[in-house]
Design a protein that fits this description.
With 410 residues, this protein is an alpha/beta fold. It has 16 helices and twelve strands.
Length: 410
């Protein structure tokens, strides 16, 4: 049973609230002074606090309640706290809500609204407690991985990324092709780097190629090399990317945009490990660990005749699906703080970052914060500095929007 602490100098208020809460299954305890309330909180088993704003007969400013609030918040930052206030302290109550109070209720209160508020806050508190436990467990798993593997500076906090990283590390040393799928800007190249740094060929070269940007007439020379005179203007031997990656890893990004003729030529070298430079009949061999990436739905591209099925199965021995940023919101703030390199964010800016859908994924987040860092005038990054689209739909009082007795427009 959750224990709720009522801190109020009026015995009638304490008795009425205690009875109301007890009837609805809550255990209520009372304290008549701020000092007594803090002493009771020290026992560490209070789930929620309801506190008055004035405790002396000659005081009506709410300053006593303000001091008590900040004392509680300093020692118990995650403890839900409801303010009981007369209308004269309404402005101060709003200030304290912005500083972290869960809600405020005027005297006399509405029993149904108070109970709904208490129920909502306790449910949210339990959810937050479970999330903290999950985050702590994830942090411990990350620490264990960091002791055994090179995480390549990867920034993440979400369970989805933890599972992906664990799978990537599990297959990193296997000599098989890996296909990384996911939206543009989600971080596919960082996952490729993670695999390379933990592979059996980590001491070898790591060659990156944007396969989708290769025109047909240059694709063969780019991948396999060319001899002097193979095409106009080539006066010396050109080493291809496969040859350059020999003994290491070749990362082919945007593989779904490679032309059909390019796909056919790529398939041959994957099957045999053999190739010829453009303009040469000498067969060469290379040993390359291949990682490819795409934002294209390759099965759909196969059905539409735009991608070779045999090449797909050559590339897709292991597939790693990288979720977009909006599906791993726990990664947003760690990434934001990494990009800002120590510069702080206001509360409104944090809420906006968490609420925005980030269609451009990590790349959009990075560009947004670099721009904000350059243009911000104050010490902190504000909501205005972020310059997010008005359609982002964040809510400045999102925490209060769960309260059924008061609307919070987003």
């Amino acid at each position: 049973m959750d224990t709720i602490l009522i801190i109020d100098d009026n015995p009638a208020v304490c008795e009425a609230l205690s009875l109301l809460l007890a009837v609805h299954g809550f255990n209520a305890e009372t304290a008549a002074t701020p000092i007594a309330g803090l002493q009771r909180l020290a026992r560490q088993d209070i789930a929620l606090v309801i506190q008055d704003m004035n405790f002396s007969r000659d005081q009506s400013s709410g300053e006593e309640g303000r001091q008590l609030f900040y004392a509680i918040r300093e020692q118990y930052p995650d403890l839900p706290l409801i303010l009981l206030t007369a209308w004269t302290e309404l402005e101060m109550a709003v200030e304290l809500v912005k500083a972290g109070a869960a809600d405020y209720l005027g005297k006399p209160w509405d029993d149904a609204k108070l109970l709904a508020t208490v129920t909502n806050l306790l449910e949210l508190s339990e959810l937050s407690r479970r999330q903290r436990q999950q985050q702590q467990a994830l942090a411990e798993r990350r620490q264990q991985l960091a002791k055994r593997f090179d995480l390549s500076g990867l920034i993440y906090q979400s369970d989805a990324m933890q599972r992906l990283v664990e799978t990537a590390l599990q297959v990193a040393r296997a000599d098989v092709p890996i296909l990384i799928t996911g939206a543009n800007g989600a971080g596919k190249e960082k996952i490729a780097e993670l695999i390379q740094h933990n592979s059996a060929v980590k001491s070898g070269p790591f060659i990156r190629v944007n396969a989708g940007a290769l025109p047909d007439e240059l694709m063969e020379a780019e991948l396999f090399g060319a001899e002097p005179g193979a095409y106009t203007g080539l006066n010396k031997t050109r080493i291809g990317r496969f040859e350059a990656a020999d003994g290491g890893t070749l990362f082919l990004d945007e593989i779904g945009n490679l032309s059909l003729s390019g796909q056919m030529k790529l398939l041959r070298v994957l099957q045999t490990g053999e190739f010829e430079r453009l303009g040469s009949s000498q067969t060469r061999r290379c040993r390359v660990r291949l990682i490819s990436a795409t934002n294209t739905d390759l099965p759909q591209a196969i059905r539409s005749g735009e991608f070779r099925e045999d090449l797909y199965y050559r590339l897709n021995v292991i597939e790693l699906q990288l979720p977009p940023l909006h599906q791993r919101p726990d990664d947003i703030l760690p990434l934001a703080r990494h990009f800002l390199r120590g510069r702080a964010l206001t509360t409104e800016a944090v809420r906006a970052l968490e609420a925005y859908s980030w269609p451009g994924n990590v790349r959009e987040l990075q560009n947004t914060l670099i721009r904000a860092d350059l243009l911000a005038q104050g010490e902190q990054i504000t909501l205005t500095d972020l310059g997010l689209p008005a359609a982002a739909g964040w809510c400045h009082v999102r925490r209060l929007s769960l309260m059924p007795h008061r609307s919070a427009k987003c």
